[in-house]
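testing teh design pipeline on a random one, pls ignore if ur not involved
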């Protein structure tokens, strides 16, 4: 009877241990992505991880601002050219300028500058279109260089955190006088986490950067095409 009781006690302890392990595994599985991300961020160290986070926030702020600006700057250039040509034919230069004033976007602004110099001759109007086109391109490219800086900076900060983490791991080895996994695991873990977060930030910002560059190229091509059409229109009606 005593042996049976002992066996039952051992079996109960084994079942309890198994249940606790299953509960711990269930908790690990049920941990949300946000919780896991927060945990890894804390484990990576507040200094370098904080700087990488700041680069992400600033980069996203610039990217969102540029995307909004570029979308607002996008216009239907063919429709604008047709409206300007119709207004020019029916009401002259002033009517065409009024159409440009009532239309948003860099193309309309370029058209207005060209029409405003029409009384000085076609050559002067063409020079105004080219000069103001450069101004509008500068406005389109505003702050994009900062976004490129953050894309380069994020992985470099991650690699710096990696180097510092590895130095910390070797310091731990030197202090302990033993190369054991427990001694170096913490430093290596910090090193890898900073690298991962730096690369993730760079990838996210790179996607936005490529979209912005593609959008800018599309607008610039539209501006150049519309400028040629405007010069042709001015030559026909000089």
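output:
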């Amino acid at each position: 009877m005593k042996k049976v009781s002992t066996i039952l006690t051992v079996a109960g302890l084994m079942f309890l241990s198994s249940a606790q392990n299953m509960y711990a595994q269930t908790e690990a599985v049920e941990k949300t992505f946000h919780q896991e991300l927060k945990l890894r961020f804390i484990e990576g160290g507040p200094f370098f991880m904080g700087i990488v986070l700041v680069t992400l926030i600033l980069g996203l702020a610039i990217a969102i601002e540029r995307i909004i600006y570029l979308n607002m700057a996008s216009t239907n250039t063919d429709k604008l050219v047709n409206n300007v040509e119709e207004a020019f034919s029916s009401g002259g230069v002033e009517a065409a300028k009024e159409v440009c004033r009532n239309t948003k976007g860099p193309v309309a602004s370029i058209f207005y500058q060209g029409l405003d110099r029409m009384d000085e001759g076609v050559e002067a109007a063409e020079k105004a279109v080219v000069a103001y086109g450069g101004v509008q391109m500068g406005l389109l490219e505003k702050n994009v260089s900062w976004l490129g800086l953050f894309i380069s900076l994020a992985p470099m900060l991650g690699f710096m955190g990696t180097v510092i983490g590895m130095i910390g791991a070797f310091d731990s080895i030197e202090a302990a006088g033993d190369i054991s996994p427990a001694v170096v695991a913490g430093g290596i873990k910090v090193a890898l986490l900073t690298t991962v977060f730096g690369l993730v930030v760079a990838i996210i910002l790179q996607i936005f950067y490529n979209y912005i560059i593609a959008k800018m190229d599309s607008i610039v091509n539209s501006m150049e095409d519309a400028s040629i059409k405007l010069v042709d229109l001015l030559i026909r009606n000089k």
